[in-house]
Amino acid sequence: MNKTQCIGIGIILIGIAMSFFANHTALTTLAGVLCAIGLGLALKFIPFKKMKS
Fold first, then answer.
1. Distance between CA atoms of 22 and 38, rounded to whole angstroms?
2. For residue 25, is it left (φ>0), alpha (ψ between -120 and 50) or beta?
3. DSSP state of 44
4. Residues 10-42 pLDDT 10s
5. Distance between CA atoms of 16 and 40, rounded to whole angstroms?
6. CB neighbours of 35 closer than 8 A, spacing ≥ 6?
7. CA 7/CA 19 separation, integer angstroms
8. I need a surface site. Which of 24, 25, 27, 53 has the fewest CB within 10 A?
9. Domain boundaries, the chain
10. Which pTM does this prediction carry?
């Protein structure tokens, strides 16, 4: 695992913990967005390197 994947897993864990304590719809939506971003980072769907053209 590289650094980006570790950060993604950390974001997923924060999103899951946030969804357990959130009572409002906006916070639950934010937790879902955090989980989606974390999953993208963990599975390397979100590249940080500039592509060569």
1. 18
2. alpha
3. T
4. 999 999 998 888 788 888 889 999 999 999 888
5. 15
6. 11, 12, 15, 16, 19
7. 18
8. 53
9. 3-45
10. 0.77
